[in-house]
## 1
Amino acid sequence: MHLTSFLQNGQLTIVLTGEIDHHCAKKYIGIIEGKIEAYNPQICVLDFGDVSFMDSSGIAVVINALRAMSRIEGKLMLSQLQNQPLKVFRASGIDKLVDIKEVLT
Amino acid sequence: MKFDNYMVLEFPSRSCNEAFARSAVGCFAAQMDPTLEELGDIRTAVSEAVTNCIVHAYPEGYGTIVLRCRILKDNVLDIVIKDKGVGIDDLEQAKRPMFTTGGSDRSGMGFTIMESFMTSFDVTSCPGKGTTVHMRRKLQRRK
């Protein structure tokens, strides 16, 4: 698990990598919440381009990020989803709550 | 039941074994020549079932998880994941989407995902004795 982020024009982009499961989800949730609280962005983009696998723990990561963004009245987006994580998001219906910007095919 | 091949794994309910379990099943299933999507579905369902054992079965510490995979005729992968933990009191409630007794790092979508990603899915539980998840996935034969 490895995470980088950058802030540009009020948009915080957080790049997630590797496989997201329960083993690392708690750490991800804490780091993402910390960054949102520190930078107060209008938009937060979770970049899933390098996430090759995710189970329902990834849904909890997104729900917690969504809560953190709604506390500061900001918007959350997901980008660059590969097929497997996208399928998990669709099965959970979370794709109806969060904007999914780009999908990798 | 007639089967072509099988494997059995036993490991403690430590969260670092989630990745190990789904990778092991993925490697075992590789001989069935699955598509990437089928492999992703199987790995996801195994990860959910094993995570449930790790999060819920042994609240007092670590216990044993047994994972068995068999290849049945007609290209069916049969997976059983079993613990000897506390069991589930109310299965119907546990299966409901978004229901969880875990913390905010759990989504309550595990059973829903297992059910929708596999061809068949069944869970039996005996409070105080443990829980068994039994699922099957029929793989398309590639021409």
## 2
Amino acid sequence: MNLETLTLQEQIDGLREKKFSSVELVENYISVIEDKEDLNIFVSNDFEKALEKAKKSDGSKKSQQDVPLNGIPMVHKDIFCTKGIKTSCGSKMLDNFYPPYSATVVEKLEQAGSICLGKANMDEFAMGSSNETSFYGAVKNPLNIKKTPGGSSGGSAAAVAANFSSFSTGTDTGGSIRQPASFCGIAGIKPTYGRVSRYGMIAFASSLDQGGILAKNIKDAAIALQCISGYDSKDATSIKVEVPNFSEDCESSEFEHVVGLVTDLINSFGDEDLSKNYGEAIERLEKLKIKTREIELPNLELSLPVYYVIAPAECSANLSRYDGIRFGYRAENVENLEDLYFKSRGEGFGNETKKRILIGTYCLSSGFYDAYYKKAQKIRNLISSDFVNAFKDVTSVMLPTTSGEAFDLGSITDPVEMYKQDIFTIPANLGGLPATSVPFGEKNNMPLGIQFIGNILEESSLLNISNKFQLGEK
Amino acid sequence: MKDNWESVIGLEIHVQLNSESKIFSDAPTKFGSDQNLQACEVDLGMPGTLPVLNEKAIEKAIKFGVAINAEIAEKVGFARKNYFYPDLPKGYQISQLDDPIVGKGSIEIQLGDQEIKTIGITRAHLEEDAGKSIHDLFENETAIDLNRAGTPLLEIVSEPDMSNSEEAIAYLKKIHSIVCALEISDGNMSQGSMRCDANVSIRKKGDKKLGTRTELKNINSFKFVEKAINFEIKRQISCLEKGEEIVQETRLYDATNNTTRSMRSKEEANDYRYFPEPDIIPIQITSDQIQRIKNELPELPDEKKERFINELGLSEYDARNLTYDLGLADFFEKTLVNIDDPKLVVNWILGDFSAILNKFDVEAKNSKVDAVKFAELLTYLKEEKISGQATKKVLENIWENPDLSVSKSIQDLGLEQISDDNEIEEIIEKVISNNPDQKEQYLSGKDRLFGFFVGQAMKESKGKANPKLVNEILKKKLV
């Protein structure tokens, strides 16, 4: 049996039925990981500790309910702080950063019994759509090493696709879970803003960042999402509501669906392949006898410019703490305080990060604030209300995840072209809405993805429709 | 000040709120612990950490707002104020811009016998304190202490309603007495619990338009506020009289040399790039919450003052001075428990007792002579067992020797008043017979020599003779 190709659900069942041990699982993964080092997926790993933990898991008497992921190996995006383990956020700035605390997501997954094998490579500070902005170099797409795995959670997506683990954590500020999931042919979910604690998740754009899961399928994503969700007193933006049973709801037959479609909008791109895949997705819904309804999202196209004002503005402040004073990279041989700032930040940050800090600083500057930041916030509210209106009539909205398949590494040099990668994924972040990406279709032998966007806190319904769609006809 | 100029002053007072933990983290706020031991990962601005608002800070700010009859915001939102400085860990300060928790309000001040003046308060907002840079600990290096980082601050911004340093001091003292009465801050200026920036400008008398202002930073005692403002007024007037223009700038007060010097001009001023803090969702304040706080409000300095005037018969002047320092007012009331003579007590508290507190730089609540002992001492005086002079000596004596009782101290110092008629007669007869010439002169009409005999008698009794009796008996004898 190839343990590394099993789904999370299969691993949970297998461990429970003692078909194999956690140690065997971990050993299996380690050999795969060592085999595929060239993919550049891991920034750091701790196999010894993982094996130790696996041994403990195998001897654990705890109930399945207490430790639902007992003995299950997994991978964290290197944006989540792990106590005593390097957390680089893909940046030279944090290449020497060993946090004295763990992110809430990390703690929750530890409490659930899972075992972290390593930290996944990512775009620097989650700013990128191709993993090419990482200080550690780009991750290669396991399906075709010439291609990007997407970004910013490129390492997390590649880890699942390359069988480094059955699921991984990721973060999604403008599509950073869904786009790489789509590029690597796996499933991903970004839950409602506030569903998963952001504590210990290194901030890019605070009002948009949300942690989530990448997995082989929607059911697995639901199981893992269950474990990381819930109110956290350490995150003032986390929502104080009970977490539903996502894995049960995912397969329930109780949910009624009306899927909102934007066929005209998709066709307006004039991209035949895009329209074709979207059309085929609609056909699948029809075959599954799921109700659909054409809706309008009139301000959707404004998402991109709005995002590229708000996200850089927030990041310009969030990244001010990297000043070489208390932690992180500190330049040598400096003349004075100003020189220390200039050199530490100049040498510690990569170009894309610097570019976004500059954009954000500009947008917030005196005299420009109203024209950029304030206006962007207004449009953000418009986009949110478009969804509020849409959800009066539908239970979810279906969109492509990306406009195309994974592109060749190094092929996109125009930043605006790169930013356009996020055109379908950004709206969910602006509205704080949960959204999934489900593998569907292909182009040039690379997978494509279909995205479902759900209403606020309606992950159960969203997972349910996504799962139905992924499974297709019985 | 030359007659044709007038100065306009506004103050920004930073009050450290006395919540147990910081405004956005669980770390304690206690003053004086070893460096960086009271700073957690949130205070250090470490990656991924998030601020969580301490509701206690909100409560305390509302208390202040209610006490100055200000509007309280329904929605309280925070903003990021961006600037780089080593003791500002996140590179931004979480503050408030558009929705300050406390809106327009006012307080009243009074100088001497002048009319009551109303000073407007523009707003008061919550923010986090920064850490401290320590420049003299290591050679050529600056050390950072982040214990103070994240301590809740209430920044109280006044209207430019004050015309001189005396009014500024009166305003500052009034704010001090209010925050102390509300128990929202310890008000300790020497430990930085209250810090003050002053905006000073000069204009021609009668002008409506304000002159260009400078902002004075780093003034942390009542005395320095007065000195800094006075210096700055003089400096600006002398500039204007030389035909120079005032530059809008931030100036630092240098207490050692009693001068102000330019820190940065308007052109060099930071663009703080404020924007709403996304990590903290704006909170709603309900009218119920405000009403509850209103109901729980303690007696405010002005109310106490009125009570002292109306119920205890104090003069307006005494009552005002007593209620500037609530520690003194409290000591006053505690003393009255054991001696029913408000006028006598207030005179001694505002006089010699305050002098001794100032001399040893001690607050009334930490006085080495407690209110019971103080009342006992004043009872000796009231019953004419000791003189005023002697009372002062005993006060100093029992201050320096806290274990000493009042009676023992009087005994030790030999200050018991002589109120025995015969004993005093003896002394007076001796004095008169020793000074026959003066007696002649007095009897021939030099009335003012009466004082000479009183003095001689007091001297002869080593200050112990009851002056009232000395007067009476002298009058009888000098015939």
## 3
Amino acid sequence: MKAMRRIATLLLSVVLCTASLTGCGPIGKSDKKKAIEVFVFKPESVETFQQLGKKFEDENPDIRVYINSPGDPYTILKARMVKGNIPDIVGLDATQTYVDYAKADIFEDLTNSDLTRKVKPSYVKMLANIEEMHGTVHAMPFAANVTGIMYNKNKFKELNLTVPTTWQELMDTCEKIKAAGQTPFYLGYKEDWVINSAWNPLAGNFTDADFYQNVTDGKITFRKAYTEPLKRLLKLNDYSQGDIFSYNYNNATVGFANGESVMYMQGNWAIPMIMQTNPHMDLDMFPFPALDDAKDNKLCSSIDLMFSITKKSKHQEEAKRFLEFLTEQENVSAYMKEQFGIPAINCDYKFPEQLNGVLDDFQSGKIVSSPQAYYPSEMKLPIALQTYMIDGNKDKLFKQLDDTWRDAHEN
Amino acid sequence: MKNRNKTFLAMTLPVIIIFFCFHTIPLFSGFYYSLTNSKGFGVYNFIGLRNYVKLFQNIKVLNSYIFTLKFAVVTTIIVNVISMILALGLNSKIHFKSTLRGLYFIPNILGGLIVGYIFNFLFTFVVPAMAQKIGISALSSSILGNTKTAWIGIVICVAWQSVAFNTIIYISGLQTIPQDVYEASAIDGADGWKCFWKITFPLIAPFFTINMVLCMRNFLMVFDQIMSLTSGGPAESTTSISMLIYKDGLTGNQFGLQCANSVIYFIIIVAISAFQLKVLTKREVQL
Amino acid sequence: MTSKEKKRRTVTVLLIIVGILILIPLYMAIVIAIKQPSEMTNDIAGALSLPHKWSLSNFAEAIKITDFWHAASNSLIITVVSSIACVLVSSMVSFAIARNMTRKKIYKFFYYYLVSAMFVPFSMLMLPLVKQMAFFHLDNKIGVIFLYIVFNMSINTLLYVGYLKNILQSLEEAAYIDGYNTWQVFTYIIFPMLKPMHATVAILTTLAAWNDVLLPLVMLSGGDGRDNTLPLTQMVFQSQFGTNYNLAFASYILSLLPILIFYLIAQKQIINDVTNGAIKG
């Protein structure tokens, strides 16, 4: 009889206890240290940040740092926002996803703070432009990226090629490579975002800074501005390995690293993977020559990683201390070196030789901001471009761009 | 008796309440969000049925429904035909019966995501390389890279995993048929094919119904394999409805719209399942 | 007799051939996992030939990088506890429903209410659910287990009730006459009688929980990742080391291995139990 009751209670308690036993939160409360959680959207950088986190913990024994860098980061972050269980520091790239969060008042305003003062002014300005919130910024740009064309220096020497500086020269280079029986570009367009690395420099160079505002105001249409860059984007496919929608980013990166193509359109973030696959590769990069006149061509750059402090954080002071720690010369260098990044922080940094070809433009500020940062997230531009490459329906593409842009800007 | 009733209620009610809280309430709030322009966080407005209107005008949504239905119907048919054949084979008098059964069940226990990664490699590199060697030009490029064929790759991968489970169910159906039924038909002179249609199939019809309904439901909800095989591409040609809700609802900021989409999706799944049950069980009775 | 034996041989051989075809993808995965990157070429030989040197170094490295033991133990805890809880809770509810649904409308309603939930797509519930679970501080392992009980309730109720309907009630009636109360009848008479169905439910829940991606992905991804399950670590791994195919495949194999071992040990049992579920459910 008693045994009976006990079992019955057990059955119910399985259900009820799980409801009441809430368990502890994601971060252990047992130790007295203050714990901050740093969310970084780049899983490939997690090891670097874990090392930096350890170093910070050694220097600040009262704080614990948890680096969280999950697979499918944008979804996870969204789920966390919905939960209300928001990390103390959020590291994102400059896209409208970030802007949406900033507009939803989730991040601290960092305009004119000690943190943003350590950043190169051009990046603070770039961010303010992207946010379109009366010049305020809600993040500290940490690393920048450049999107251009990487090339295999040995193969360039072999084929007697020089770095092209105009669109026509690029086409000539491609023809020469093709004539020599080699592949100019390895395109991994199975993953749609990879198309961005060709599209961003093209579209960026063909439009000016006021373009996005003008679209919203109805002064210019996508059709008008994007017809030519689209044509050129498609032209590049003629110089690929073929069957471009079968290979993804990983496949293409490995392919280029193993010498299966002479050039590779990507950003500097791909360099660690290339060097990991082929440590002996002689690699350099040049700005994408999108236009016909060499002096008009600008280097396409964007903010690769920037950190925001969340309003709901219970440890804002500690979060700030961690970000300040990140801006220290030594730590900036450590990150940039491992990730082949470009510091957005003011500091002395010797760039790796793999970035030699883009340094001049970079230092003289001959830069165009990547258009990707301005596209609303529901626009899903790379998918639209991928679809266009397959079905060739220009009207459908432009209608979709117009519709989503209008939808995103009406409220 | 009165006491007994109390106990029965004590057994069910807590569970029903919990089920209501963690299944039905989220369902209702999903329905509520479908009437708003919510992004999933921050402030939002009530916009009535506008999401539903938008949904019916959206080509992307329509295409995803067409793909999902096509995929589900084709895969259901293929899986059931193969399972039936395998079940007949595995249930007949063969050597190594239990070993073979064990082997055929392996794909079913593996996770869809990982299996997708493995098939992805197979389709991208191995199959084209083989085709080039043999000289089949149609297969010399990856089937996943082409909008017309990518869905076939997903059918193969999903079928590879699902056949096992359905086979087992058919085998258990075949085992319920008493041996003397066959002996009687052998005396009547029925040959193998006729024997199958006239005797075997009607007798395992209930199992056919279970398999059809479960297959259809599972395939309409396909997600994991698509995630690792194509992520819905190329050109969104393999974006299943679950995938669309997940992608656009979570990362594309169309939470409200995709909630409306899931309401429609839910209605369709229920309608198809109800229809199947009705038609198939009717057939069972007639037979 | 000889023609029968001939037929038997032909069918066996055919089935073996198909069986080998089924195993090719797994064979490929294992071979690649053992090879070194230098042996990899993008052709058939690269993918399918046996490695020159047998080495488990990829596995060792993958274990280290993905923190395998930790993720595996998380997966194990979630899977085992969910399965046991599902068996206990679902069998109890199904017993009450099965014995009352012909007499009382409300139980019939309960039955259809629970079973119809099978057709609700998870993606529809996902975000509201995440919000709700966080509110109750259940966005952790316990919460995930809890949700597995809820989400598997539909299919489990279907199976148990179907089985219970076919059990003769005379034994229960005798027990009631002997003075057993309902709890006792359930624990001493019904629960042991449901044994074949328990195994079926436990196995189905185990497979579903072990292989699930989406639910742990949105529920467990807070903090330091100490709640990560195996499929989650694979997703991170894919984005970090996806270019090293050999390492990636070693990691895939690792995450498949525990369930494969479980299957090899309990193979006969599993197939019989799934069969059971189909016949009696």
